[in-house]
Amino acid sequence: MDPLADALAISGVKGALSTRVEAGGRWAVALDDFPGTALHAVTAGSAWLTVPGREPVELVAGDVVLLPAGTPHGLTDDPTDTGGAGRGRCEHVVARGRGTGEVISLGTQPATTRIVTIHYDCDPAALTQILTLLPGLVHVRAEAGTPGLADAVRMLARELAHPQLATSAVLKSLVDIVLVQMLRAWLEVNPPECFGTWLGALYDPVIGKALRHLHENPAIPWTTSTLAEAISVSRATLARRFPAATGYTPAAYLANWRMDLAAVQLRDSHGSLETIAEAVGYGSVPAFTRAFTRAHGRTPGRYRSEARSRGGTAFRLETPAPSSLTISQRPRARSGRR
Description:
Elements: H1 3-10, E1 14-24, E2 27-31, E3 37-44, E4 46-50, E5 57-60, E6 64-67, E7 73-76, E8 90-94, E9 103-107, E10 113-121, E11 138-140, H2 147-161, H3 167-189, H4 191-194, H5 198-203, H6 207-216, H7 224-230, H8 235-246, H9 250-268, H10 273-279, H11 285-296, H12 300-309, E12 324-329
Helix pairs in contact: 2-3, 7-8, 9-11
């Protein structure tokens, strides 16, 4: 049983290739109201990430950074230039390359910096979330990364640079692989930053084991005592550490997980309410209906009919809403400037 794979699937995390930046000389690009969680992978050269209220972050080849949905941010060659993105001579363009990786050339060519941007979104109705609970900025540096992440980014860059048969299918898989490899790398190299997040709980030797039991057997009427016994710790230990790691008591976490599983079955299967209720640990349809209605704000029957009217799933990312980029191209630096 793999709780991370479970949660990614249940929360409907989907990735799509977005804009590719190829820049040289003096350049800047501002990304305002970027839809979904934004991931930037620097495949060549270097850049600075700017986020209002934070110190600029230098990114070099091999670095990968992840930002929460809706975070205004920018990429530039020089964060100290006050005439950067959003000022000076700017041009507004629509990021038409979403899903195809269209290149936006900035500054002077040939390009010395190349950045691949991927955006991820999830089903907002899911009670179990991963991306929305991450810190404000997740940065995995090249020297601190893992071979898996480095390999995935290199494969992505190579596929974009040299398209072949079924490149679109390869890219579709790679954008998901990059996210998983980044999360793995972050957990491995920055455990203190992970504490208090759902991902960090997986690496806790006690809570990780408890989560695997809940995910593997959600229909069991778990209590804090029986779960503690199953993982060979005291009830007091589990009662203290589980909320600290996940933000929920074991019972509350299990209730949310059951409702997410039920929602998926209602959307994607033709199972009866009796079958679904039993599968997620409810002995009667009325009890299941009351719990589901509290969690999702509508009865199971209404939830299913609404999902069917949307084409069978509650959430898709194949047709993302357009976003805008603000591009600033400044004159090439005088001799002697970086």
